[in-house]
Amino acid sequence: MSIYVVYLSIGLANSFLSCHLHACVCAILQLRL
Questions:
Q1: CA pair distance 27, 13, nearest whole angstrom
Q2: How many folded domains does the chain comprise?
Q3: Domain containing 13: what range?
Q4: What are the mean pLDDT values of the chain's consecutive 10-residue runs (33 residues total)?
């Protein structure tokens, strides 16, 4: 059960980081335009 929790937390952190990175890239692109 603990292994499942570890995978779940890693997945949540990964999705959060990718969302943050996507927002940063969008902001940088908007500033360039």
A1: 21
A2: 1
A3: 1-33
A4: 91 92 93 85
